[in-house]
Design brief:
Elements (H helix, E strand, L loop, with lengths): L1 E4 L4 E5 L3 H13 L5 E6 L3 E6 L3 H9 L13 E6 L6 H8 L3 H10 L2 E6 L6 E4 L13 E4 L3 E5 L2 E4 L4 E3 L2 E5 L20 E6 L4
Parallel strand pairs: 5-13
Antiparallel strand pairs: 1-2, 2-4, 3-4, 6-7, 6-13, 8-11, 9-10, 9-12
């Protein structure tokens, strides 16, 4: 673990991998140090902002014992998905299984939002399942809003139309990000997600 300054009110905790981040984040959110304002996880780091002195925060962060579980026990939300994505057949081929097996695996896993990024509302979801899918060799210039996708060990839902290189397996009508809603983002670190098969359209 390495601590790096991030301005005069934050420290960046640099960790070895995502599992370490999740364990550290789970422990930190369960018992946050005094005067902490925000805790933001990423793939290899946790950013912690404070209203107090950085010296005290540094001591507190070094004393954190990562949780035995790598998951924060967040609330569960169900996302209905129509599994008709443009890359669904390719994903089945890459995994060496049928399309129906891809759907069964994706809906059978319970996913957790590990961290957010890329665009407002985009959550990087992990599960206990074995997923290791390459990104597309040629990214799309436009991925439609609500597209459900896979890449590497992650699943995600595109909150708005944007370029993207993930493998598209389906779509949902659930609004993942709505600036007129409070909170605007449906996904936040620790939230558990269950995808539900809504049929093939």
């Amino acid at each position: 673990m390495r601590l790096l300054p991030a301005g005069d009110r934050a420290l960046l905790v640099e960790l070895g991998n995502l599992d370490e981040v999740l364990g550290y984040y789970a422990a930190l959110t369960a018992d946050p140090p005094a005067e902490v304002i925000d805790i933001v996880p990423a793939a290899h780091t946790v950013l912690v902002t404070t209203s107090g002195p950085l010296g005290a925060l540094s001591q507190a962060l070094r004393a954190v014992t990562p949780a035995g579980t790598t998951q924060v026990a967040g609330d569960l939300i169900e996302i209905p998905v129509t599994y008709d994505g443009a890359d669904l057949d390719d994903v089945a081929r890459l995994l060496g299984c049928s399309v129906s097996e891809v759907v069964a695996r994706h809906t059978g896993d319970e996913w957790t939002v590990a961290f957010c990024g890329f665009s407002p509302g985009f959550g990087y979801l992990t599960s206990a399942g074995t997923w290791n899918l390459p990104r597309r060799e040629s990214p799309r210039t436009k991925v439609p809003v609500g597209a459900v996708a896979l890449a590497g060990e992650f699943s995600g839902v595109y909150p708005r139309e944007s370029p993207g290189g993930w493998q598209l397996i389906g779509r949902t009508t659930v609004r993942i990000f709505d600036q007129d809603r409070e909170p605007a983002a449906l996904f936040h670190p620790g939230r558990r997600v269950r995808f539900v098969d809504a049929g093939r359209g």
